[in-house]
Amino acid sequence: MRLLLVEDDPMIGKAVRQGLLNAGFAVDWAHDGAAAELALRDAVYDLAILDLGLPVKDGMTLLESMRRQGNHLPVLVATARDAVASRIAGLNAGADDYLVKPFDMDELVARARALIRRRAGSGSSQLVAGDLVLDPLRRTVTQAGAPVALSAREFALLETLMQRPGAVLSKEKLEESMYGWGEEIGSNAVEVHLHYLRKKLGAAAIVNVRGVGYRVAD
């Protein structure tokens, strides 16, 4: 899953980005509101984590602009503005959740996952497809009750597919969801990860829709 982090403070941004990477997310980091606006035009995200006190273009202005343009991307505001009036204003402007700095990294990750689940229409933290069960919080996968050991990239790929049950995702969409800015991507990276994933789960677990992409089996 790919997130857009919008934070101008270099120390906070670096720490939050690393925490999100450790939690298995692909993360793009925009340092001001104008850069975030450009990123939202050019890439597809599962969630935005937005500071409000941003240079160039204020976070509240960016949020209001997104909603006016019909952009329904889930937005988690993470800001030092802790007054009740600021929280109300942020939620009324279209934020899906509001977290006040300083915050616990585990809470940020939990709230991010909850918003992504809500968008997908799932109330459970676990993802299920046939006999496959993926737990994003514990970073575990079982098949027919037996644990399956996956690499970080294999886990991210499977999570992306299971977040969209029934959907056929192209190689390009899978790359977008798994890699952030500046990460080196081999020309056949997705195919390599899929190869090893299907060896571990069985070829029937992930369906190749020829010429279109891949999906998890029913």
Helix and strand arrangement:
Elements: E1 2-6, H1 10-22, E2 26-30, H2 33-42, E3 47-50, H3 59-68, E4 75-79, H4 84-93, E5 97-100, H5 105-120, E6 127-129, E7 132-135, E8 140-143, E9 146-147, H6 152-162, H7 171-178, H8 189-201, E10 206-209, E11 213-216
Parallel strand pairs: 1-2, 1-3, 3-4, 4-5
Antiparallel strand pairs: 6-7, 7-8, 8-9, 10-11
Helix pairs in contact: 6-8
Descriptive notes:
Helix 6 (152-162) packs across helix 8. The chain is elongated. Strand 7 and strand 8 form a beta hairpin. The chain is 42% helix and 20% strand. The longest helix is centred in the middle third of the chain and has 16 residues, at 105-120. By secondary structure, it is α/β, with parallel strands linked by helices. The mean pLDDT is 90.
Using only CA atoms, what is the Rg?
18 Å
DSSP strand tally: 11
Mean pLDDT: 90
Q: What percent of residues adopt helix (DSSP H or I)?
A: 40-55%
Uncertain segments: none
Brief synopsis:
By secondary structure, the chain is an alpha/beta fold. 42% of the residues lie in helices and 20% in strands. β4, α4 and β5 form a beta-alpha-beta unit.
Features:
four-stranded antiparallel β-sheet; alpha/beta; 11 strands; 218 residues
